[in-house]
UniProtKB/TrEMBL annotation, chains A, B:
Homodimer. GO terms for biological process: prolyl-tRNA aminoacylation. This is Proline--tRNA ligase. It comes from the Bacteria. The gene is proS.
Length: 580, 580
């Protein structure tokens, strides 16, 4: 029996003025969340009810997928993270602390190491594999720029799962089961989402998928088509549509371009189109411990370098834009004046496929304030390797033959075939069918639980407040006696609460002695799927049902209410499926 | 459908040799828990199933008590803890860390401050009160001596709840509801426990209760009687049974007692009974900021000082045994030679009631190596205040008229009327019925969730392994086909799993192709209430049911199994109630 007068729902007329995202604004105004510190939130009772419903859906789907729940500590010994190499690699995002005896710990942002350790000490034979374990847990990440409420915070709840297999077939079985479970979870939660090809580093193959919910405030660019293709920008490719230019090669000339440091400035100074200018960027590729290789990447002036594609081509550990000092050392100029002409063999030169068809390009002259015009491949400069090193652009043709579209997305899930990296480093081996010791092959799987609330709110909220899909709404029905001081209205509210509760619905009764306008506004803010208003017609046994999502209202006799609620909630669920 | 071959249950023949507690040993051996670091544990799938059942019971009872669940972050700004004064007071037990911008945080061991802050900013009027909020959350405590497995760890799950009221009646209402909920929870979990009066500091009154589970490894001493009296040692009192001694006061004499620093040494040196010697202990009582009062406490040589009682009498913030320097400064001797004779007015003298009836006592002479004999109250020394300042002893008569017994106990819960301390410090006020701003009156309530597993295991485990009450057992029934290679046995196991699952029971099937002895031993270790063995008589449709707790076995036809399981589980639950 949930009475609004006794539950903590501190609704507000206004959100702080610096709040940008709709989900953030409405969750604060509706009394769902409270900020304890920048990026650190408290989930008030309504938000926590939503979280619990999401958790329940996750648990049911993990059960079906044969995964077992367990729980790791948040406090993890630094030693374990040093063994995996992530203690350094994770950088400033990792919270570090020491205990009273100066032993060092980190607060877990993910748990690959600790699961690998437990499995290493627990499983000795392939007979127990494949095996999937998961947890629903608060994670910690020292975010540089926490924002959008609980969308990007320093402490947040995640589902993180890990599969262990003795062979590739076992890994694939677990991966496919998890992929199916993830689809089921996001479907049931009522999210619109795209499954996108994600970059999987140097491993290659289709072994990584992201689940992304389209939303204006999403921080990822999703590349997709109406044909079903979807990839993130790092991974997306398009059909090559370059046409060989046919002009005669002209004489290479050096021209002064004072103050022209960008492609656009150079284009204006030289009076040519940006697409005819070579964008030349020098990177330092980390090939190993203290082993850095300078790499010059060339592309059309109107294209963007895709560092992930370059990284994968080079097979390097890390790729950084060269410092001014490195640019001066290897090319003798500032970054705004670099180009390929005259570059020595010590610098590797990669060029995007679209460069191959250009004739008489302009490029930096490796001499501050000067550009070359009429530069041509082979005649004037060397290219070591052509390839796809650029970001795709909207309108290009995707591999599926359809034109590419862009949208912003919130990453809500990620599944990934990890391989044996952690197993090797931590010595997690099992005996395979042939009695040989082999490294366990891992997969890792994650869903942002609290972030999912933001995603759902972004997709569904309107200017009046939140709108929850019934599957995760804090309550199914919001019962509002217009005047709680009138005994007959409160009696009817209590009766209706009883009826609906017995029928299996969760009901919140607004028993507050507030004005009707305040109660209706709060109801819209809170976003429960159905509102039952008990007003003047209560005497005739008639109430009004309002559908939060559409604003439609219908009058119903009390005797028909349970039935009507069932029909309306079913219709809403069906519509939500149709919308996808 | 839970098959043992695919669930992570790494049973072990041996626990590490340094393991002391039975619960610790058996939880490690049965594959329930894995130590990630000293005092930091991972809960493997079986343990997590038990935890989830405990959580479910807690949620149901909190619901009934009208409390709402929410969730605070573990990362709390240090600033908030400085405001409440606990940043220093909590000492080394508090984990402290800084983020990338050098902002300071603590990892929450409890959450009084943050709940007070949220309520302060959310509730303005008494109309919303009383209100109870709670969370089920991992807590952090930098334990100096983590031990007994998950009984005393650095990261552990707790239920912590907080009530807020506008007046004492509201506080009492919430407190009583929580007390009832706690009793229901511990009853349902199947624990034997005692509700004991706990010290509530200087507030006075019956406003604090501890729930303690008797167990050998318990770190608290519980004082109780068969009449129902129970208190912790700090709080326990007994009926005064002293008899006025009738000897004539003799002449005060100073005697050399070389090398006698303890009561026993003095008794031997003087040839008298320890009960005739005054134990004289000098304390420094902190009355305020930089305000310390020396206090000499006198009691019979065979009694122990109860510092909590002394603290409450003095109303001081803190009580410390005086240093050698302070003993020399105020009494002119070492701590082993102190006494009340000749002590000036600057030292307050408290004496236990049992001192009042003594005649011709011996006591330290405030002169190293000397004692007085035949010291008498008033004639030879002053007493400023008599009172009950000692620990009770076994066999004494409790306030309820029954003889006192001692047992060790594990503190599993605590409820406490906090008052307005936090509200005052953080400015959490509401308007009361008369329109006046008043401090919210708080109560706080806590249950150690993971610790409860240790308590249940301590009370129920035997030399073969764990024994779980059915209400929180990871499964209800353990189905064991003796030879999983035999198709007929596996088929029957699967049939039985289906039948029992449909009847609402949770079933674990040991489908491993291990020897029967291994499977039976593991089954005893894991401690599921009922074991169904499918062996030779399977061909006749007969299985054996074994009750883990008693070891009894019965043969049952498969057709009768569901029925039998229901009856046996009900009997076990009833016995558990009778046992209390």
């Amino acid at each position: 029996m949930m009475k609004q007068s006794k539950i903590l729902i501190p609704t507000k007329k206004e959100a702080p003025s610096d709040v940008e995202a709709l989900s953030h604004k409405m969750m604060v105004r509706a009394g769902y969340i409270y900020q304890i510190s920048s990026g650190v939130w408290s989930y008030l009772p309504l938000a926590y009810r939503v979280i619990r419903k999401v958790e329940q859906i996750i648990r049911e789907e993990m059960d079906k997928a044969g995964a077992y729940e367990m729980m790791m500590p948040a406090l993890l010994p630094s030693e374990l993270w040093k063994q995996s190499g992530r203690y350094e690699a994770y950088g400033d995002n990792l919270y570090k602390l020491s205990d009273r005896n100066d032993r060092e710990f980190v607060l877990g942002p993910t748990h690959e190491e600790s699961f690998t350790e437990v499995l290493r000490d627990s499983i000795k034979s392939y007979k127990k594999l494949p095996l999937v374990v998961y947890q629903l847990q608060d994670k910690f990440r020292d975010e540089d720029r926490p924002r959008y409420g609980i969308l990007r915070g320093k402490e947040f709840e995640m589902l993180d799962g890990y599969s262990f297999a003795a062979d590739e077939a076992g890994l694939d079985e677990a991966y496919q089961q998890q992929a199916q479970a993830y689809r089921n979870i996001f479907d049931r939660v009522g999210l619109k989402y795209k499954i996108i090809l994600a970059d999987s580093g140097t491993i290659g193959g289709d072994n990584s998928q992201e689940f992304s919910a389209p939303a204006k405030v999403g921080e990822d660019v999703i590349v997709y088509t109406d044909g079903g293709y979807a990839a993130n920008l790092e991974k997306a490719t398009s059909k090559f549509s370059g046409v060989q230019q046919t002009a005669e090669p002209a004489e290479l000339k050096k021209q002064a371009t004072p103050g022209a440091h960008t492609v656009d400035e150079a284009a204006e100074s030289l009076g040519i189109d940006a697409s005819q200018i070579l964008k030349s960027m020098l990177f330092m590729a980390k090939m190993g411990e203290d082993d850095y290789q300078p790499v010059l990447v060339l592309m059309r002036g109107n294209d963007e370098v895709n560092e992930t594609k370059v990284t994968n081509e080079l097979g390097c550990e890390d790729l950084e834009i060269a410092s001014e000092a490195d640019a001066a050392k290897y090319l003798g100029a500032h970054p705004g004046s670099l180009g390929p002409v005259g570059v020595g063999e010590d610098v590797k030169i990669l060029a995007d496929n679209y460069v191959k068809v250009l004739v008489n390009m302009a490029c930096g002259a490796n001499d501050d304030g000067y550009h070359f015009v009429n530069a041509n491949i082979d005649r004037d400069f060397r290219v070591d390797q052509f390839g796809d090193f650029r970001n795709v652009q909207e309108g290009e043709i995707a591999p599926d033959g359809h034109p590419i579209k862009f949208t912003n997305g919130i990453e809500i899930g990620h599944i990934f075939k990890l391989g044996t990296g952690y197993s090797e480093k931590l010595g997690a081996k099992v005996l395979d069918k042939n009695g040989r010791l082999v490294d366990m092959i891992m997969g890792c799987y994650g869903i942002g639980v609290t972030r999912m609330l933001s995603a759902v709110a972004e997709q569904n909220a309107d200017e009046n407040g939140l709108v929850w899909p019934d599957s995760i709404a804090p309550f199914d029905v919001h019962v509002i006696p217009v005047n709680a001081k009138k005994e007959e209205q409160m009696k009817m509210a209590n009766d209706i609460e009883d009826q609906l509760t017995k029928a299996g619905y969760e009901v919140l009764v607004d028993d507050r002695k507030e004005r009707a306008g305040v109660k209706f506004a709060d109801s819209d803010l809170i976003g429960i799927p159905l509102r039952v208003t008990i007003g003047k017609k209560a005497a005739d046994g008639i109430v009004e049902v309002k559908i939060r999502k559409t604003g439609e209202t219908i009058e119903v006799k009390q005797a028909e209410l349970v039935n009507t609620v069932g029909i309306l909630l079913k219709q809403l669920a069906d519509q939500s499926v149709d919308d996808k």
